[in-house]
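Support request, please re-run this one:
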Amino acid sequence: MSQRARAGKESPLSAGLMQACIFVILLLHGIELHDSVFTPQGFIFGFAQDLSLIAWVGLAFYWFQSWFLPIASLLWMSILFALFCSLLPIFFPGVVISPLAVSDPWFKAHFIAATISVGLLSLAAMQAMLMSVYDRALHRQLAIVPNSRLAHWLEDLPPLMMMESLLFNLLYVGFGLLTMTIFSGLFFSQVLFGKPFVFDHKTIFALISWFLFAGLLIARWWVGLRGWAAIRWVLSAYVVLLLAYVGSRFVLEVVLQKV
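Re-run finished. Output below.
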C-alpha cells in the first residue's frame, strides 16, 4: 500500500470524533443564529445572517450525507465556508425587519424552509462548480501539477456520476422548498410589510430564479440534461437567486446604507 493510501485511510475513532465535533459546532451555531435572528426586539436579519444560515445548512447537509456517501474530500471546503460566513454577523449585525413576525410560528416555519432551500441550492451551485473543475481536470484542460495537493484532492473526489446524482438530489429538495417559500411568502407580506403583496426586485429575481430551476429540472426529466449544459444552467439560476435573497440586503445595508 502506498504512503498516500495509508495516509488517506481514517480510523473509525477519528472519523467518529470528527462527526461528533461537527455536530457540536452545528448545534451551537444553530442556537446562536436562532437567538440572534428571533430577538425580543423583533425579527432581525441582513445579508450576513443570510449567508451564515446558508453556510450552516451546507455544513449540516454535508454532515448528514457523509454518513452515506464518500464525500470526505468536501469536508474542509464546507467547514471553511461555514467559518467565514459565521463571522460576518459580527461586522454586519443586520436590522430589525419586523417586530411582529418573531411571534408568528407559521412565519418561523416559512423562514426555516426558505433558509434550507437557499442553503441546499447554494450547495448545488458549489457542487456544480466543483464538477466543472473536476471535469476540466479529467480532460486535461487545467494545468495541475502532478502529486500536488490539488491533484490528490481531485483524485479523492467521488466519481462524476455520483457527484451529478448528488447535485440533482440537492436541486429536487431545494426547488421543492423554494416553491413552498415563494408562494407561502405571499401570505407573510402582510406580517412583514403590512401589505398583501410586495412586488419588488427581490420578488422579481426570486420568480425568475424559480422559473430557471423549474426549466432545468424539466429539461433533466424530458431530455436527460447533464454535463456542462446542466452546470451552466445551475449556476445561472443560482446567481439570480443570490441576487434575490442576499444581493438585495447587501445593497440596502452596505452600498446604500439603508434599512
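The longest helix spans residues 105-138. The mean pLDDT is 78.
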